[in-house]
Amino acid sequence: MFEDIPVDVSPMYEGERIRSANMFVELAGPKSIGAELVQVKDNVEDGKIEVKGPELADMEEGEIYPLGILIEIQGEKLEKELEGVIERRTHELCNYIKGFMHLNQRDQIWCRVSKEAKESGFKLEHLAKALSTLFREEFPIIEAISIKILTDNAEVEVFLEKAKSLYEERDARARELSDEDVDVFYGCVMCQSFAPTHVCVVTPDRTALCGAINWFDCRAAAKMDPEGPIFEIEKGEILDEVKGEYENVNLVVADRSQGTFDRIYLHSVFEYPHTSCGCFEAVAFYVPELDGIGIVDRDFKGETPLGLPFSAMAGQCSGGKQVEGFTGLSLEYMRSPKFLQADGGYERVVWLPKEIKDALVDYIPADLIDKIPTEEDVNSIKEIRTFLEEKEHPILERLKVSTEEIETDEKPIETPELEEIEEMDTREVPTSPVAYASEMTLPTSTGMKIILKNAKIYAEKVIIKRK
Ligand code: SF4
Question: What is the DSSP string of 289-307?
């Protein structure tokens, strides 16, 4: 089937990572531009393949180039609503090609071609040919398909703008509905190939965390292939409307996560937040010192005020984990009136990258816009606190109440008299943990708890004392 393609094409290559040392070129990604787009059209010339711009043979080893992937499909049973879901499969299908790595989705794509693939004669034309065959196989309702690969900078720029406006059209449609308007949500397990316990629950208010699939897309996909990776979930009894907890959603998540999780809150980062795969557009993270929530997106290149970049934040919760205080989310979810509503929504947000803040200016309550700092205003927790005080951010009320509650409700903790009996200096073996804890709770001065899961504790000095 792939005789004229000089590298293997098979699901077994999904998950292959191409490190920079083994990379011939990088395409799109954070240092360039790129996008992928599927469009249902009439008069599609079946089998047409086109590469506009430099082919791999014209590229310099180690360089980075823009990339556009335009896939046009036609079929009697194909609906416009299926575009998003079919487009999302581009990630998986590209990764079937040995020596080609594809990450993320929409205008976030990030690809690499390995040196071995290039040496064996692989071209971008082969990428288009492989995708053409794979899409036809995966979606028998596709009757005609044509694929255009763009690598010319000016062409990709124009394509990117067009793709962005079409993504926005798809997203805007879903904004007209809310969770109360429907009886069913949808689940997606497409990312279980690399995050085996991850189950996305897609509702009108909570677009999938990859940002590429909304409730309408899921409805069309589940109708087309009820046995496929996107399936209907009856809401069942509402257990907590504000947190977004539903009896039947919990049952389905337990079943599809192989019993790993049996509760999720759709609209909170606390207790049972939505699990996170790895392709989320942004991460919400708890900032215990301020009892607030920060958000960092994939495009943000610097460090958050916690001193960690996006990648480190993402590492805390990706792979299908449910980690209290962290959750992956889409930027579209930040436009929903239910955005983290159980935690206080934007009233709880104490830091955002400038670019996201600008993009969400119509969705952040007007009285909060100037009160949420970005990297242009602050660089540390201390600076955030000063900024929040100067701007009278509502989180200050919350901090005050928490402190008052502690002062009035809690008895002071009595510290037992301790006698130092042994001191062990561990500095010579700093790479060995001195203790492990599957779960460990740390008190804070704000009345909130910090829970560390699977913690490894390192120390420069261990002091053992007898009571
Ligand atoms: Fe599906 Fe969620 Fe993965 Fe998007 S992030 S492809 S909705 S599992």
Answer: GGTEEEEEETT--SB-TTS
What is the 8-class DSSP label of residue 60?
Answer: P
Q: Which regions in the chain score pLDDT beneath 70? A: 401-467
Ligand 1 center to 425 CA (angstroms):
47
**Which residue in 194, 176, 42, 22 sits closest to 98, CA to CA?**
22
Q: Check residue 440 and give its pLDDT.
A: 62
Q: Is the dihedral of CA 111, 112, 117, 122 positive or negative?
A: positive
Helix, strand, or coil (residue 181): helix
Q: Which token pair is 87?
A: 């487009």
What HEC string does 357-419 produce? HHHCCCCCCCCCHHHCCCCCCCCCHHHHHHHHHHHCCCHHHHHHHHHHHHHHHCCCCCCCCCE
Pocket residue to mutate for ligand 1, from 106, 190, 202, 283, most atoms within 8 A of Cβ:
190
Q: Supply the pTM of this predicted model.
A: 0.76
The Cα–Cα gap between 83 and 438 comes to 43
Ligand 1 in reach of 191 Cβ (< 6 A): yes
pLDDT at residue number 442: 63
What confidence score (pLDDT) does residue 464 get?
54
**Which residues are CB-contacts of 434 (< 8 A; sequence separation ≥ 6)?**
426, 457, 458, 459, 462
CB atoms closer than 10 angstroms to residue 242: 12
Cα 446 to Cα 286: distance, rounded to the nearest angstrom: 13
Q: Locate tokens 């711009």: which residue? A: 53
